[in-house]
Amino acid sequence: MKRKFVLMLLVGFGFFGCSSGLEFTELPIGGNIEAKDKSGQLVSFKSFQEPVLLVFFGYTYCPDFCPNTLAKIKAAVEPLTEEEKSKFKVVFISVDPVRDSPETTTKYVQFYLPQSVGLSFSADTTNQILKQYAAYVQKTEDGQSFDHSTYIYVLDQNRKTRKLIKSTDSKEVITKSILALSSNSVESK
């Protein structure tokens, strides 16, 4: 009987304890950007009205991680109400400025999520942003694709990075992160 109680306690802790995956803290990477995109328009994350930004790096020719991650975000937000959907925006930043224009990148990401924007900057600006976000990008030997980090950076209304969502995290982590940060119920640590 005692063994069953301990097992039930451990299982309960696993469901309700530290493994929720929803710790929010202010991370020293990422944050607001202010830069001109390839079309010459000034982009500032602080100009977006939505209280939560999901920032993701990728490219439109990506064969796997980018479409899979965007599909996961789409599945994560499907159960949200229209009001809840208005509380976040996906910002897809191209790591392939040679092939991806701002228009192409926006069209690509909006295929998955209408409440999104695609950004493409010059190579120098892209490299600065990648450094600011500590994102990994490496052109492959064939020169046609990129190995790149697949984190979703979750930014709060002050444009501070509050969470990194891994590509292996469940869609529920995305949903709960949007809801928690958009409700202002999360305090800065």
Automatic annotation (TrEMBL):
Top-level taxon of the source organism: Bacteria
Residues where Cu cation binds: C62, C66, H148
Short name of one Pfam family: SCO1-SenC
Key words, A-Z: Copper, Disulfide bond, Metal-binding
Name of the featured protein: SCO family protein
Keyword Disulfide bond belongs to the record: yes
Disulfide pattern: C62-C66
GO molecular function: metal ion binding
Keyword Ligase attached: no
Organism: Leptospira soteropolitanensis
